[in-house]
């Protein structure tokens, strides 16, 4: 164990927090205490990206696809896809304790599951040291016509095969995260064990004379046949809100997807980084709230950005989803489909797999999650 000091606070940190798979709060102040209750595999509470070349995310375009023969079948498949992604990210921990339990699984099903698991492990080994892999290179893809049966098989025996698949997605801890561990940057991390890999981290323009000013706990993630399609980052802290807006401006992101409430179960999950009304200056960027439309499941905010001493203005849309509990699923399945997101990693996986489904009529959830974990730890 090594001791980590933050001001007058002291806390214990393991020598390899990433491999431990646990979340440690970075201070012991009751107002800022954070625990491991953030969801498994998706600690970051924001996802933002310039979704296309024009900086616009067209949700309808991603969702409007179906076979000519049977639109109902496609709708069922979409539901199953979303539920699978949720289960892969969230339910794996629920089934983890059942790994040693006995189950009546046929030889054929067990053999197929072992094959998929072995391929995931092999791909993980091949990918070490290769951060710019192609997410599509997969031996675990499932044709759309077989997907429903695939899910039924995974659900059998209290989801035992889900746990096998989940545990095959072992985090890759072979990359470096030196910037996250730099003394001047450690206070910028919401969780000590949630780091930004050096090879994929978002680098801000450095401020002269300010050590670590290029650092923010955020990583680029590849999408479907598109490099750096997304940025995944933690919910801003009070001391990093200006860095957050600096990143939005420098990356020309026009869409922010926020998938947490500011506070959940009495714990602060994200600092409010936008003005409740009017305008506010964050660093050298002025952010003005133009409109807020509150719906039953989410709020859409229209924000205007401009440099404090400049004339260039940009419009950014924030989609703030509020119905997804930290360790569960929405009570309404229709809300899930209409919103199109879960937590950060789930949202990204759903969006990428819907694009693949439309183009290739197949999905590879496990393979894609593996690719996400090679660009940001604990995804």
UniProtKB/TrEMBL annotation:
Domain Tyrosine specific protein phosphatases residues, every copy: 338-379
Record's keyword annotation contains Disulfide bond: no
Domain of life: Eukaryota
Pfam families: Y_phosphatase
Keywords: Membrane, Transmembrane, Transmembrane helix
Renumbered residue ranges of the record's region Disordered: 1-35, 108-143
Keyword Membrane assigned: yes
Location of the Tyrosine-protein phosphatase domain: 162-379
Name used for this protein in its record: Tyrosine-protein phosphatase domain-containing protein
């Amino acid at each position: 164990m090594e001791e980590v000091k933050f001001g007058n606070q002291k806390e214990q940190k393991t020598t390899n927090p990433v491999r431990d798979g646990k979340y440690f709060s970075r201070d012991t102040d009751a107002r800022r205490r954070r625990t491991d209750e953030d969801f498994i595999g998706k600690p970051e509470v924001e996802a933002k990206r310039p979704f296309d070349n024009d900086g616009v995310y067209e949700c309808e375009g991603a969702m409007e696809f179906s076979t000519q023969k049977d639109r109902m079948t496609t709708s069922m498949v979409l539901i199953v896809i979303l539920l699978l992604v949720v289960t892969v990210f969230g339910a794996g921990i629920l089934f983890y304790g059942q790994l040693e339990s006995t189950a009546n699984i046929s030889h054929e099903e067990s053999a197929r599951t072992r094959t998929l698991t072995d391929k995931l492990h092999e791909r993980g080994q091949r990918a070490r040291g290769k951060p710019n892999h192609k997410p599509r290179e997969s031996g675990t893809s499932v044709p759309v016509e077989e997907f429903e049966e695939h899910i039924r098989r995974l659900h059998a025996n209290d989801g035992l095969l889900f746990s096998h698949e989940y545990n095959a997605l072992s985090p890759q801890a072979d990359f470096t995260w030196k910037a996250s561990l730099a003394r001047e940057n450690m206070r910028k991390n919401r969780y000590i064990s949630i780091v930004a890999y050096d090879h994929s981290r978002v680098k801000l323009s450095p401020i002269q004379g300010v050590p670590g000013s290029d650092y923010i706990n955020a990583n680029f993630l590849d999408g479907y046949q598109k490099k750096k399609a997304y940025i995944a980052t933690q919910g801003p802290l009070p001391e990093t809100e200006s860095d957050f807006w600096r990143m939005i401006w420098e990356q020309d992101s026009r869409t922010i997807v926020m998938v947490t409430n500011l506070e959940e179960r009495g714990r602060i999950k994200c600092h409010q980084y936008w003005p409740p009304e009017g305008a506010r200056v964050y660093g050298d960027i002025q952010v003005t709230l133009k409109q807020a439309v509150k719906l039953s499941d989410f709020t859409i905010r229209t924000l205007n950005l401009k440099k404090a001493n400049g004339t260039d203005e940009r419009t950014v849309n924030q989609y703030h989803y509020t119905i997804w509990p930290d360790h569960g699923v929405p009570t309404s399945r229709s809300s899930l489909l209409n919103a199109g997101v879960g937590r950060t990693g789930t949202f990204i996986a759903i969006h990428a797999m819907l694009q693949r489904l439309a183009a290739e009529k197949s999905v590879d959830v496990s393979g894609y999650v593996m690719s996400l974990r090679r660009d940001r730890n604990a995804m």
